[in-house]
Each structure stands twice: as C-alpha cells, then as structure tokens.
Amino acid sequence: MNKVAIVGTGQTKFSKDEGDVEKLLFESASNCIQSVNNYDSNDIDGVLVSTNNNSKYLGAILSETLGIRPKISHSIEHLCSSGTNAIISAYAYISSGLSDMVLVSGVESATNPGQVLEWDRSRGNLEHPIYWGSMLTKSHKRKFQTTEEELAIVSAKNHKHAMDNPFAYSNEPRTISEVMNSKQITDDLRILDCSRSCSGSSSILLASEEKAKIFSDQPIEITGIGQKTTSASFTKNILGEIESTRIAADLAYKMAKIEAKQIDVAEVHDAFSVCELMAISELGLTSNEKSGEFVRDLFNTENRMINPRGGLIGAGHPLGATGISQTIEITNQLQGKSDKRQISNAKIGLIHNMSAAGTSSSIMVLKN
C-alpha cells in the first residue's frame, strides 16, 4: 500500500445565501490548486465530488472547468459524512496504486434536500433531524444527568471558536445565557443547540508519498481510517450511544497505532450540542459521565482542542463540504497554520464525521 498525504487545501466562506454549486466547487478547488507547488493539470488523475445536491455529473463538470482530464471522476453521497467518505475513497484509490493524485471537492447549497431521510419510515412524521437530536438529548440528560448549562457550553464554546474562522457561517459570540434562552424548538433543543444548513464548498488534494514531496513542503499523512455503518434507521440504535463512532474509532486507532490519549486536536460532528458530548466519549477522550465537565474545562481554560474552527454549530454545516472542512482544519493545525485558533505543538489530529443519528461514522487520524 502506498502512503497517502494531504498536499493542498481550499475553501469558500459558508453562507446562508443560496449558492450555485458549480461556481462554489470551482472557487474552492481553484483555491486548493493554488495552494500547492509545481502544479500541472496533468498530475491530477482523480476528481471526486462530495454532495447531497441533485445536480448530476459534477465530477466531470468540475474537471472541465479546471482544465483537468482525470482517469477517475464521480460523485459521492452519504448524507452528513459525504465529505469524509469522499476523502477516504480518494485514499483508497491512491493507496491501491490506481491513482497518484486526487482532488476531493465538497459542496452544498443551503436549499439542498439531503437533510431528510425519507426512506426511514420508522421516523413516522418526525423526518427532520431535529427530532432525533431531541431524542438523543433527552436520553443523555436522563442517563448521565447532563444539565442544560453543559449543553449550552458546547454551543457557546463553538460559537466563540468560530469568531476566529474567516470561513465560518457565524462570527458572532454567544454566551451560555444566550444559548439557554434562545428559541425553543423541541422540549429538549433550542435553536442555538443546532447546526445550520448553509451554502459552501471545501476542497482538498491528496497525493502518494512520492508525489507529495513535489507538491508540498509540509505534507500531512493520513495514518488511520475507521468506518462503520450499523443501520440506516435510527430506531435500531441504542439511544445515548453512538456505536458506529466507537467501532470506527477503534479501527482508526489500531491502523494509526495510537491511543485516544495521544490526540492533540479533534474536529467532531456536533450537529447538535449533545452530539459533541457523545462523540468525545465514544472516541475515548473522556467518559459519558464526565463529558460535560470535560467541555466545561475546555471552555473555562480557552482550550481549543475540540472543534477549533467552530464545529458544525459555529462554522455551519453544508453537508457535502463539512467533512472536508474538518479535515482542512486539522491539516492546518498540524502545519501550524491556524493563526488564532492554533493548538500549541499539535502532532496528531482526528476527524469525526457521522450521518443520520450516528447510524454510520467515519474517522480519520492525521499525523505531522
């Protein structure tokens, strides 16, 4: 197997405005290509597009607008974790020797239809993710005595981090009190407990170890990958747990030959405030009982270890671009290029992305 590294990144600002997906893709991909050394369009032999948008043939369209004629070109859809899955697909192409260099671009328009899984009839009329988010929140409160304030801290922390992220949807600070007094959506969720659907695009360029040295002075290696799908219907999961995350994390740690305690910085999937508390527990960074205390300590000490770019709650959640944006943040952290968001001496980073109430999860470990 060939080693695979990240050699270039590019993004657009996430926005509430309706976006033209082709234009957004071109912008982030162009920014990505401009970030690498010695670029030649003939070097990119794969173009993958991650999206839940209904537009067709986007891989080929993006290739043509960039002046690329790749061997491999197609789209990948997997709800909220589409971006991470696209990166892992590119990794597989390169590690197997089928490709040497792959561009992965994720995109979404704020009006995309991909946030409702209509197939899952077990949801009844409760199709929107807000309902499973509410159920997970209620379960976590009952099982682990999680408080409203602990949940609000997650949102306040991530909004604070997003203030220093020029690509974030929101650059507005939110106090714990503001979160706790924001509009009530369900019995257990307020509007500021929720991530926002939005428009935006993120792109990343992966290369084999040999090629990476040509295109980057500081390539970041993907050393661990874990994926798991337990179901599509969220009613088949145990409320209060994200089994797919736990299994995927164990696989990623084993492949990277590390333990959870060695993670310096992590981007986790906080679609709702409770998801961050659940994720850091399943990733082995703390326990369920202490997850609220863990995040409170991060907030009080201004430690940006978890979701330094603002998470989905602060940065926004354009489904197809989210996992790629998370990966760009960890790449920048390991390269020491995150400006005010920078974690001191970050060597090992983790990306956690999941879909449909955690019925599937994807994990990646990156090393400097």
Integer count of domains: 2
CATH class type of the largest domain = Alpha Beta
Task: State which percent range the strand residues make up.
Answer: 15-25%
| Mass-distribution shape | globular
Mean pLDDT: 94
What is the CATH third-level topology name of the largest domain? Peroxisomal Thiolase, Chain A, domain 1
What does it look like?
With 368 residues, the chain is of the alpha/beta class. It has 2 domains: 4-112 and 198-220, Thiolase/Chalcone synthase (Peroxisomal Thiolase, Chain A, domain 1, 3-Layer(aba) Sandwich); 124-195 and 222-367, 3-Layer(aba) Sandwich (Peroxisomal Thiolase, Chain A, domain 1). It is 37% helix and 17% strand. It contains 12 helices and 9 strands. The protein has helices at 21-34, 58-66, 82-95, 129-144, 148-162, 176-180, 209-215, 243-256, 273-282, 291-301, 311-315, 319-335, and strands at 4-11, 46-50, 72-76, 101-108, 200-208, 220-229, 265-267, 348-355, 360-367. It has a 9-stranded mixed sheet with strand order 3-2-4-5-1-6-9-8-7, sandwiched between helices. The radius of gyration is 19 Å and the shape is globular.
